[in-house]
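User: Let's play a game. I give you a shape written as tokens, and you guess the letters that built it. Ready? Here's round one.
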């Protein structure tokens, strides 16, 4: 896409000439349209729970005013919607903070095995209520230069997805293993696989999963409390750590999300 300016000029000897200036604006246009899409998505995602909450309020003020059991039910649904908005805003803040951060790689030494065990411990109770068992296969001590909080967020997001979209009841596994030389990272690395036994993801969706708000099944994601931002955040953090992210999935068998991070 080009922006063209036409201006009449006087050339040498007073000859009339026309100056044409072509400016390539494709990139400007593309980023402008991405920004518009993003604002539209955010507005829509916030509007949906807001509409629900205002509907509940109307019912509570009217028909359900004196109906105690209905009131309890509506209050609990309102709580759910408000928590969804809260998660959405937290995820948006995380993304915007990550984008504003320097591209420099964090350098604190982080023990990945410890991060995995901590994440699993935090999510065990919630997983159990869904009938999901978490396996952590991380014997070795694995040090990587990184940001502990951000790496914790990566594996918490991936584990939450494995629990949400995996088989219920079922097992999800966190598997840590050393890589002698990763061909892309071009050096020693640590590989963490987060796998589930769920329905899997059709291949055409896989390349788009790290886009903001991209979901395979919006209804299912919403029902599970998802914001559609989890994998976008994961991708950002992994890139900042100079690592790589790969999603292997087979429909009907399950999914393994693999994060590979350069070793210390
Ligand atoms: P969400 O908040 O919707 O879970 P994510 O960015 O974390 O957003 O994931 C994007 C989409 O990728 C999800 O809505 C879901 O459709 C799909 N997805 C992610 N992880 C898995 C998985 N382990 N198994 C199947 N589908 C998954």
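Assistant: Ready! My guess for every position:
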């Amino acid at each position: 896409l080009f922006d063209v300016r036409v201006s009449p000029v006087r050339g040498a000897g007073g000859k009339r000439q026309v100056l044409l200036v072509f400016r390539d604006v494709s990139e400007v246009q593309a980023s402008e349209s991405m920004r518009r899409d993003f604002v539209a998505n955010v507005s829509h995602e916030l509007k949906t729970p807001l509409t629900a909450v205002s509907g509940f309020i109307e019912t509570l003020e009217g028909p359900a005013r004196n109906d105690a059991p209905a009131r309890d039910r509506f209050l609990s649904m309102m709580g759910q919607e408000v928590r969804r908005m809260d998660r959405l805003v937290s995820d948006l803040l995380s993304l915007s903070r990550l984008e504003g951060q320097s591209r420099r790689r964090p350098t604190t030494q982080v023990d990945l095995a410890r991060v995995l065990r901590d994440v699993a411990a935090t999510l065990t109770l919630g997983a159990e209520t869904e009938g999901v068992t978490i396996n952590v296969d991380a014997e070795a001590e694995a040090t990587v230069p990184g940001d502990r909080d951000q790496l914790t967020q990566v594996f918490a997001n991936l584990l939450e997805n494995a629990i949400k979209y995996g088989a219920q009841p079922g097992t999800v596994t966190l598997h840590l293993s050393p890589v002698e030389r990763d061909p892309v990272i071009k050096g020693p690395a640590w590989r963490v696989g987060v796998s589930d036994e769920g329905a899997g993801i059709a291949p055409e969706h896989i390349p788009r999963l790290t886009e903001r708000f991209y979901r395979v099944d919006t209804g299912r994601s919403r029902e599970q409390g998802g914001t559609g931002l989890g994998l976008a955040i994961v991708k950002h953090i992994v890139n900042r750590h100079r690592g790589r992210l790969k999603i292997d999935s087979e429909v009907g068998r399950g999914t393994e999300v693999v994060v590979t991070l350069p070793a210390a």
